[in-house]
Amino acid sequence: MQCQNILSKFESxxxxxxxxxxxxxxxxxxxxxxxxxxxxxxxxxxxxDEVSHIHTQFVAAIEFLSEACCDIDNSLVDPVYESxxxxxxxxxxxxxxxxxxxxxxxxxxxxxxxxxxxxxxQQKVGxxxxxxxxxxxSDDMDEDEAEDDDDEFDRDGQTCGSDDCHGCQQxxxxxxxxxxxxxxxxxxEYLRNSNLLEGLVGDTVMTVAKKFIERKxxxxxxxxxxxxxxxxxxxxxxxxVKQWVLEVYGAESSDDSEYIEQKLDRFLxxxxxxxxxxxxFEIVIEYPNSEAAIQDLKMCLELSTSSQFRLNxxxxxxxxxxESLLHPGVNTYDxxxxxxxxxxxLRALDPTGLILQLVTEPVRRYLKSRDDTVxxxxxxxxxxxxxxxxxxxxIRSSNQTNENGTDAKSGTIEMSIPSEGEKCTALNxxxxxxxxxxxxxxxxxxxxxxxxxxxxxxxxxxxxxxLFVEEYQKLLSQRLLNKYDECxxxxxxRNLELLTIRFSDxxxxxxxxMLKDVQTSKRINKRILSGDIRDHKLEEFKNLDVLIVSxxxxxxxxxxxxxxxxxxxxxxxxxxxxxxxxxxxxxFEAIQASRTLHWRHHxxxxxxxxxxxxxxxxxxxxxxxxxxxxxxxxRKAWRLKELMHKTSLPAATLRSRLALWQxxxxxxxxxxxxxxxxxx
Length: 680
Fold this sequence. Notes:
Layout: H1 2-27, H2 29-42, H3 54-75, H4 82-98, H5 104-133, H6 143-146, H7 177-193, H8 197-201, H9 204-221, H10 230-249, H11 254-278, H12 280-286, H13 291-303, H14 307-325, H15 332-349, H16 354-369, H17 373-382, H18 389-404, H19 441-445, H20 454-459, H21 466-482, H22 489-502, H23 509-529, H24 575-591, E1 606-612, E2 615-621, H25 623-634, E3 637-639, H26 640-647, H27 651-663, E4 667-669, E5 674-677
Antiparallel strand pairs: 1-2, 3-5, 4-5
Helix pairs in contact: 2-3, 2-4, 3-5, 3-7, 5-7, 5-9, 9-10, 9-11, 10-11, 11-13, 12-15, 13-15, 14-16, 15-16, 17-18, 17-21, 21-23, 22-23, 25-27
């Protein structure tokens, strides 16, 4: 009985002592938390920039906090003090977050950067172990995947040798990645259990994940545009980055996992798009070899809900085109080639044509300001011999027009593209979508060009088609005159048919007559040179090839009514040549009754074989040059006045023709306006 009384008094004394302890603890709770925990906790993060091992400070601070709280937890085990325990943790959380210093972000970033590197090393070790156990699985690995081992590691400016671990920066034989990984996971577990993870760490985890995603994308895609990496990168983000983020946050619910995956996927798409946009000029120029990059960027564009992304893309490409193309150092043909590539690439990227319209407008204005743009376009359209891109495009679009049954005289071929950007009508309102970027009135006037083919876009640089028709007439006449013997009439007729699709028959009627003149000339030449006209056979110059033109339909310089200041209307040829010309004229009059020929002696070309001193040289020159040299067949030396009288050429014209033969070593100036044939 006495023993029981003593025990009862002891228990009563202990209870009173505990009550006093916990009462004092509760009264001084804020002071204890502030002075004994929070102040010491923040002392782990000095402001000194020269702190070494910055990535270990946050882990050490959390471990200190965990141990201190563990002692208090042990003293508050009794369920009676559960409310006091909650009050303690609330006070701790409040004071820690209230005193959060600005330099904490630096420590957090270093800690989680290192945590991610160590996580990658652990994964790498695990993957290598898996491959070692498999049967020749490494033979089937993708080459790019095999090269990815070191892509993920950011050394933050530290130099690591080949024997160093990328995770902990220690020698491989002293690698501490496993212990660091375990401490890192315990730290995050304590932060989650204490409800401090979100308040202390904030967005640092996602910031680090975003940083590694951006670096992965940059190292993978910045110089290769012919292959799609988006799917491969998506798998990497899902299997590596997402797994790490889930471990940090301890996310277990499907909603949390889905939210994290969506956010990481958005980081990937934004980073991928940014890298591609920064190299958009190269992607445009290399199209269609860069088709894979365009399709990846198109997917990012479709998934993006921000108009700012489109504006950044437009401004980036526009500025690249301006800086690289629109200056005098680039010839017009190269600008047109780049413009065509840009049209194709940007249409593949954005079928609505909105980006194309906004990006290429400076190129259109600059091309319009160049004097040779029309000539370059027409030349490229008709240059089938050199496999011109624009000529192929004209043939392709012409075939598309014929297949679709489009009116060939409309001058514009509509593309088969979605209805975005079109005007909303009662017929398409269910599928209609507005332009993601509002256009001003001047831009809206060019909207029709967004749906035209490439040839129409180039032609529509100018307000009228007459410039192209006139330029084509000039180019065709020069080609027919300068390459009469080599002229491929089938090619020229095909070009004319293709251009007729763009322009009306009436506008190109002159060109049709010009080609018909060539056909007629070849037929008449063949008949006359064969001796079919018995009364008018050529005795000399039987290879005389004449281009007979209908002067009203050819450019002005072919008209017999035009007086050219630099060429005489008449010239006296050597007798043999004059006889051949006269015979040919009479033969033509016999074939074409009531019609005659008016010879343009200064046009055309003469093929000469000149033999002097046993040496033969071949020349292709104008008739005036040939007539001057032919005079030296009669006499070896001439004075200028004598040549003027013989050829009917003025002194200035005669000197310029003699200069050619002087340069070729056939004629020499003996002084005193005397010229002599060099025989040796």
